[in-house]
Amino acid sequence: MSEIISPDNTELLSCILMDVKNRSYIDVVRDVQQQLSSSPDQIEVPIQHHFAPGVYMRQMDAAAGTLVVSKMHRTEHMNILLKGSLTVATENGIELLKAPCVLKSMPGTKRIGYFHEDSSWITIHPTSDTDLEKIEQQVIVPDDEIDQFLASLPNRLKEIE
Questions:
Q1: Domain range spanning residue 143?
Q2: How far is CA 83 from the centre of its chain?
Q3: Can you give the CATH number for the domain in which 99 is found?
Q4: Nearest to 67 by CA among 87, 49, 82, 84
Q5: Measured between alpha carbons, how far is 158 from 91 in angstroms, rounded to an integer?
């Protein structure tokens, strides 16, 4: 059973990112993702899909104590932390987010998040499609294409300094 850390403690993600000075952030994320995918303690995180004309919203409801590695997106888009709190690590550092919170994601962002409370996170994408497979092809960078995608981004910060 995982111990839930206090909402103002970023120690967990600091430990995850400890060796990032010697490696790229994306390599650290890959290691965390590999560890999570091979863990027998994986849980299902409920996802709801919402559509309106020209808009797709993906809502993830994560329980307190959940550690998540996000998918990498091709596009600039908005996110809403509707309820709860989490410590999030990105290539730009570690931050504590508390609901309500609106933030913008840039192309190539891939996060590690630790949810301190039961939380709802919404990702918003502009699209007229309602076919989830087509939307995923439009907005998600497959894991085996991440290096190529990051290399194609101008002025992309690839490592934490």
A1: 11-152
A2: 16
A3: 2.60.120.10
A4: 87
A5: 7
